[in-house]
Amino acid sequence: MLEVDDLHVSYGAVNAVHGVSMRAEPGKVTLVLGANGAGKTTSLRAVAGFHRPRSGTVQLDGVDLTGKRAHVMVRHSMVLVPEGRRVFPTLTVVENLRIGGYRASRAQVDETIEEVYSQFPILSERRGTAAGLLSGGEQQMLAFGRALMSQPKAILMDEPSMGLAPTMVDTVMTKVRQIADRGIAVLMVEQNADAGLAIADEVSVITRGRTVWTGPTADADRAAVRAVLGDAALDDPDIGIGREPTAGGGTGER
Ligand code: ATP
């Protein structure tokens, strides 16, 4: 289980994140919603070791990983699929995958690549193609495949549907669901709330740098509305998101 508690992250004097708490359980997808600039990417990158949090904790299966750098996080089985996919465009599909498995032995890498190919047949078909020539959807599959090469327990995903054709969004979300169904904890930031809610188990809503609501997807329609409407909806009792977080969530306004 990935547990993020009361994260604070600053850019110099700017406190971009001040009180973000999130959970992701093995086999489950936690969707992180919030308006533009709410602090979603900053939170995810801090959890993944690309920003050092000012305070708060990041734990995976009870192991404290707070403030560790990204390559250490990968060693501890947590990996980020970044916004914009960031595949290596001049390298082939299989070369990109091998980079994702850089910690493993050659034999292990070969075995894991075959697993990735069975999960993403398109990557097998395109194994010798330069990643930069793939469609956006195929590049997203490659970014997932590269993350899976490290055999993670937790995957953080930043806006996997960004820039994709609507038909491809559903395909990508189905893949996210399948990744979680293999027992991996998925923490996913996604602006396309409808697409994310269709496959998520839990939802966390971030507003102005802090977690304001967390709970099961079935209860999250209103949270999504607030995320989309932004702060204008905060005090509207009809939207009703200001209630306390669910028990055990450990999140809420501070
Ligand atoms: P979006 O959906 O638009 O990407 P977000 O919820 O992911 O938004 P962040 O990108 O995490 O939000 O930004 C949170 C806040 O931190 C914003 O106010 C943003 O302007 C600020 N911020 C982000 N990156 C930097 C940076 N490198 N330097 C200074 N401030 C930053």
How does the SSE layout of this entry go?
Blueprint lengths: L1 E10 L2 E11 L4 E5 L6 H8 L7 E6 L2 E2 L5 H6 L2 E4 L11 H8 L5 H14 L1 H5 L10 H13 L5 E5 L7 H16 L3 E5 L3 H5 L4 E6 L2 E7 L4 H9 L25
Parallel strand pairs: 3-8, 3-9, 6-7, 7-8
Antiparallel strand pairs: 1-2, 1-4, 4-5, 9-10
Helix pairs in contact: 3-6, 6-7
Bound molecules: adenosine-5'-triphosphate.
Return the string of H and E elements.
Answer: EEEHEEHEHHHHEHEHEEH
**How would a crystallographer describe the biggest sheet?**
6 strands, mixed
CATH superfamily of the domain at 2-87 and 152-219: P-loop containing nucleotide triphosphate hydrolases
Stretches with pLDDT under 50, minimum 5 residues: 231-254
